[in-house]
Amino acid sequence: MKWRSISVEVLTSAQAAEELKALASEIAGHDVAYYQNDDPNISDANYDALRLRNQAIEERFPDLKRADSPSDKVGVTPESGFGKIQHAVPMLSLGNAFNVQDLEDFDTRIRRFLSLDEAETISYTSEPKIDGLSASLRYEKGIFVKGATRGDGQVGEDITENLKTLKDVPLTLPAGVPDIVEIRGEVYMAHEDFEILNRQQTEKGRKPFANPRNAAAGSLRQLDARITADRPLKFFAYTWGEMSDMPSDTQSGMITCFDKWGFTVNQDFKVLKDVAALNDHWRDIEERRSLLGYDIDGMVYKIDRLDWQSRLGFVSRAPRWAIAHKFPAEKAITKLLDIDIQVGRTGALTPVAKLKKVTVGGVEVSNATLHNAHEIKRLDVRLNDFVVVQRAGDVIPQIVEVLIEKREGEPQEYQFPDNCPACGAQAFHEIRADGEQDAVKRCSGGLSCPAQAKERLKHFVSRSALDIDGLGDKQIDEFWAYDLLRTPVDIFNLHQKADEAPEIWLYTSGKNKGQLKDSLTKLFLAIEKAKKPDLDRFLFALGIRQVGETTARLLARRYKTLEGFRDAVLSMCEGHEASKEELASIDGVGNTMVESLLTFFAEPHNLDIINGLINVGVAPVSLPEAENNTPISGKIVVFTGTLARMTRAEAKARAEKMGAKVSGSVSEKTDILVAGESAGSKLKKAEELGIETLTEDEWLEIAAST
Ligand code: IVH
Description:
alpha+beta, D-amino Acid Aminotransferase, Chain A, domain 1, CATH 2.40.50.140, 6 domains, seven-stranded antiparallel sheet, metal ion binding, peptidase activity, zinc, RuvA_2-like
C-alpha cells in the first residue's frame, strides 16, 4: 500500500479516503482469517499496527470515517452488556398449528380475508422451523454493518461482533444488491458440534449445555466475541427486515436471491399448492428429522405471493400469512441396561436409567431420569426392558413408556435399595406435612455421606450459585479423591495447598507444568472473584433444603447481610419466638421453610462452614433496594410457559428488582401473568380469574422501560 509510508499528518484528504477504504478491506480480510477460519495470516503486532494507523487517520479526518470502519468492530467488548438496536421493521413471532384441522382453518381464514374461492390456488412455501435464536443482519451498500438479536421484537441487542464470527454471515454482499438489505434468520448449533462443545466444556470444568439451543444462545450472547468465534454457530436465512428495493415479488424468489447473495438457505425449502401437500411435506420432514443434523421443532408455511402477504398483514405480533406447524417431542426405543442410584446434596436418591446408547432426534442419549421410586413402580420398568425415551425442548430425556410386549421372560420387579449406595446409611421415605409418604427416598447419612458432601460442593460452585469457572463436577471429583476438598471453605484455601504439595496437582490434572500453571492461575482468579457473591446467590449456594433461588432472594432482601441472616436464625434456634415470627412473616416463607432452616443451623458443621467462609474473606454483597415506582412495584407476578429471550431466573430477578413479588402459582391474589410459549394450565386459570396477562414481548417492554 503506497500511502502507508507517508506520515498521517501530511496525508491529503483524497489519500486518506483511499487508504481508509484499503485498510477496511485489508483488516476485514485478516478478521475473516482469524475469526472465521482460525488461521491468521499476519502477526498480532502487524495487525495492531494496521488498526492503529486506521484509527490515526480517522482521528485526523473524522468525516471520512467509513460505515464499515474497523475501529467500530471486532474485539470491542462493551463494558456492561450489549448496546441496543431499534429494529427498522419489527421482528415477529408465529402462530402455531398442531394438526391438519388447524392448517385448514389457517387456509380458510386466508381465503376469506383475500376473498378467494375454493378453486383459486394459493402457493405456500414450506420449510423447517429451526430451533435456535433469531437474528437480524443489516447491510448498507453491501457491507455488513449491524447485527441484532430479536430482543422484544422492537429493540434487540447489538451482537454485530459476535455475528461476524459466523461462517454463514457474509461480511460483504455481491455488487448490485439493494442499498439497504436486512436479512433475518436463525442462529443454531448442529448436533455434531454440540456434542464436541459439551465434551470440551466438561474437560474445562464447565457445565455442559442442556441442549443445542441453549448452547447456541450461550455462545452467541458472549460479551467477548472471541469466545463466540470459538463456537461452531451456523445461520439459516429465511426472511428479511428493511429492504430499500425488493428483488422479487415472491417469498421463494427472495430466498433464491439470499442464496445467490451468499447466505445459507435451508435445503428443504419448497413451494406447495395446498394444505394436503403441506401436510405431506411436514410428514416427510418429521420422518427425516433426526437425520438433519440440527434441531427443528416444526415446519413454517408462508404465503408465497408478497402482495398477498401485505394485504393480509398482522394480528398482534404474528403475521396472518404464516404459521408454524409443530412436531411432537422426539422419541426413540432402546434397552434399559441398568438403574443407577444417584445421591443428591440433600440425600435424595434419584434413579437414573442407563440406556443402550440411542440417538433421540439426532442427539445421543445414554441416560434418562426415572424421577423417584414411585415412578419406577408406576412404569413397572424392569432391567433389560425395551423403553420409549423422549427428548423435548429444554427437558432432560425421560422414559415415557415400557414396551411390555417386548419383554423377554419374566424379569424381577425392580427393588429400590433400602440403603444409600454411597455410604450405606439407611434410606427412607419422609412423611410430608400432609401426612403422605414422600415419593423420594433419602439417605439418612447427612454430611458423613461422601456423596452428599460432594454434591453440596458441586452445588456451591454451580452456575446459579457461586459460579466458579474451572471448578466443575470433574475437578471436584478429582480434588475430592486427592483429599484437597471436603467443604466449601477448602475451596478458598486451595491456593495454599497448591504451594504446599504441587506434585498432587500434576497427578490430578494430567497436564504438563506450563499448562497446569495457566489453568491454576485462572482457577485461583475465579475463586478470588467468587469471594464477593450477591447475598442471594450465596444463601442459595449453602444448599439449605427448601431454599431455592426465589427464597434465597426473599431472605437476602429481608436480612440484607449474611451476618444479619445468621444471627436471626441463630436467635430463632435459641427459641426466640420473635425471630421465628419475623422469618415466617416474610411472604413466601412458610413453616416447612422455617423448620428446614432450624434443621440446617442445628447442625454445628453448617455454622462452622458459614463462619469459616467469612473468615477466609467471603463477603456476600447486599442486594440493591427494590424500586418502588415501576409499573409492577408491589404487584404479584407469575411467569409461565417458555420464555424465549430471558431465562426464568433473569425474568424473576428483573421483576423483583422492579419491586414485584414473583410467585409460582396463579391465585386470586395474582396481579399479572406473563405467558411465554406453550403456556398451559396457569394461563387458562388466569384467564378464568380475569387476571391481566402479558405476552413475553409485552413483559420485555415493561422490563426495558425502567
Ligand atoms: S419466519 C414473520 N421461518 O420461529 C415471520 N421463523 O415462533 C418471521 N423460526 O421468531 C419468522 N425457523 O425465530 C420463520 N423458517 C423459519 C423459522 C422461523 C425458526 C423462529 C423465529 C421466530 C420464531 C417464531
